[in-house]
Amino acid sequence: MEDLQSGLQNRKLSLSTLPEKGRSLLATRDFYPGEVIISQEPYVCVPNNSSVSPQKRCDGCFTTINNNVLSRCSRCQLAFYCGTACQRSEWKLHRLECEVLSSLHKYKRKSLTPSIRLMLRLYLRRKLQNDKIIPSTAMDNYNLVEALVAHMSDITEEQLVLYAQMANLVNSILEWPGINIKEIAENFSKFACNAHTICDSELRPVGTGLYPVISIINHSCLPNSVLVFEGSSALVRAVQHIPSGTEVLISYIETAESTMTRQKALKEQYLFTCTCPRCSKVGQYDDIQESAILEGYKCKSEKCGGFLLRTTDGKGFQCQGCGLIRDKEEIKRITTEIKLLSEDASKPSATCNYQEAISIYKRIEKLQTELFHPLSINLMHTREKILKSLMELEHWTEALAYCKLTIPFYQRVYPAVHPLPGLQYYTCGKLEWYLGDTEEAVKSLTKAVDILRITHGTNTPFMKDLLMKLEEARTEASYKFSSKE
Ligand SMILES: [Zn+2]
Ligand SMILES: [Zn+2]
Ligand SMILES: [Zn+2]
Ligand SMILES: [Zn+2]
After folding, report:
1. CB within 5 A of ion ligand 2: which residues?
2. pTM for the complete prediction?
3. Does the N-terminal or the C-terminal CB of the chain have fewer CB atoms within 10 Å?
4. Which residues make Cβ contacts (< 8 Å) with residue 149, sequence separation at least 6?
């Protein structure tokens, strides 16, 4: 591990062991908002192509372009490339992978999910490094994977069985003498709590990767840094001033949720209890209030805006502002209706038909408006879904209205510098500009740039595109302004 420590020292970082938390990454100089603290190429990664996904992604850069332009490996038929550059960069690993995959039986090829492929690649890459075909470095070697936590004693019996089955499958594909099946199972458990979902600039998932140094960074629900991806490279950027000696922290989950929901998510997937400044407020009055706003019910009085807590007799929920009580049965009735509609929304007929999805989600929205506090997170998520479908259908005017509806929620639940509000301002700005409201578009795009230049940097094609749009909108706005005079 000394190697890693000196590798980190060059980046003004240090590996440390903190009580309760284990391995942690500390800054050894001040970092400022927008600065890249650390970046890492994946030890292994895989695009989330499945046998059923119509759109395939390039194995190298994860881009998705017209399938006719993407070239498929002629031997195994399973790897796709956007061009010769990506094919060349992946060749050393894929040559070995291709040998394994192309000799597979048809029925086994069907079982090649992204996580199985990721595990195969882990072993193939380790072999290539052992054989010195791929060089090892301080930041890129299998020891780093070995050092990751597996939480084997904390996982359920069910998960253990599943990992054992998957390990057997990997073993039967590789057919290497002396391979340790128990170790493969343990590595699946490592994937579950360490592998990262790789997202594009707009935070849409595109694949999965293992970044053993980035994995050292611990979680906080009030993080000082953000993890973003450029292609398959992971970059951690400061979103706040991080003084020398401070721990670098990112968030593993959706931070807008209530404390109980966040803690549950962290416990279930990452098997630890968060003790960040937000989580340590659990049970305190302002935390109870925040949870009641995010997940609780609305006051019967339209003008009130108070939040509701369960009455001591358990028969209803009382507004903490005006004292009015909402009956448990009435709440139960609306909740059941919403549940039934949500089931309809997840049926294939709705997931494939945006118009149908919109009509169901609008009915859910109406019921949720009756049921929940006006700043409810459930309502926000429903409106996000309606917005997504409206964008797909190119119903721009209504999409803009929904985008604007979500902004006050975003402003309330996310810190000032966070990718999600930045992206929402971007969507808003694009729609305003398209619909001819250039002045508003300039305002929204400026807000988007102010946030995203910190979280995303300014060098990616995505950001260059945004900066160019803002420039064009500004020019158009000043032209409109001068022609009015
Ligand atoms: Zn590519
Ligand atoms: Zn191949
Ligand atoms: Zn927390
Ligand atoms: Zn009230």
Report:
1. 73, 75-76, 79, 98
2. 0.93
3. C
4. 22, 190, 193, 194
